[in-house]
Amino acid sequence: MCSSRLAGTSFYRFGSGAYISTPALAFVHEALWGDDMISLLELGYELCGTYESQRTGVATRYQVEPLVSLRALHTYVSMNPSVKGAKKAGRAIRYLADGSASPRETKQALVLGLPMMYGGYGLGIPRMNYEVRANAAARAISGKSSFRCDLCWPECKLDVEYQSKECHEGEARRISDSRRTNALMAMGWTVVCITNDELDSFAATEAIAQTIRRHLGKRSEVYVSDYHARKLRLRRQLGLPVDRW
Questions:
Q1: Residue-wise over 110-133: b if at least 16 C-beta within 10 A, else e?
Q2: CA 131, 136, 139 angle in degrees (round to 5)?
Q3: What is the structure's pLDDT at 228?
């Protein structure tokens, strides 16, 4: 039951006399009912991303339309501050991004981007699948007019690519990846690749995060106690191994 007056679009008409919550209201309700901020963040990335999974009650699919945008979530929460769950939802929104293409990309973004208090590396939430327009030299190398960067810090010209087995196997794909990397480098970009095995390895993730930190020019001081334990806890919450060194 909700006794608050709701602003904005909160329901869709499902049938005669039946309505369902919009994704924005559902996100606020999940913030109220759940006690796990990380699960709420994973839900938010899926709602704003281009994939679906059992988290939203369906079989896993990719390249689908987002159910909601980050801007729409922020607007809805801002319009309904008195609704129970809105405060927690507002905190979560600070660490969301549009455009994640898979659950593994989401996990990678959270591990790298979340503040240290949550067990992340504090590198800042990246832009997801950010479009970079190719210049003449890049077009000559790759034959493409633009590139999609999985995890991107555009202000530092840094592209972190998640190398999934499904999308990066085969000789033709390797050639395409090489041309893409060379084209971005010709425009002054740095490309860092992370494989499935590296994301599953705590030691590999540590090393890659430090490389990214240096490129972003971020300090490495730790401001929270038991930081190592927090990193391991975040990995467990995300379903990532903690014992692969």
A1: bbbbbbbebbbbbbbbbbbbbebe
A2: 60
A3: 95
Q: Are 12 and 18 in contact (CB under 8 A)?
A: no
11-15 vs 18-21, strand pairing mode: antiparallel
Residues 50-91: tens digit of each pLDDT: 999 998 888 999 999 999 999 999 999 999 999 999 999 999
Contacts of 165 by beta carbon, 8 Å cutoff, 6+ apart:
196
pLDDT at position 178 over 80: yes
Report how many helices (DSSP H) and strands (DSSP E) the chain contains, helices first.
Answer: 10, 8
What's the helix, strand, coil split of the chain in %, to 5? 45, 15, 35
* DSSP strand pairing (51-52 vs 18-21): unpaired
Q: Are 135 and 187 in contact (CB under 8 A)?
A: yes
DSSP one-letter code for 242 = S
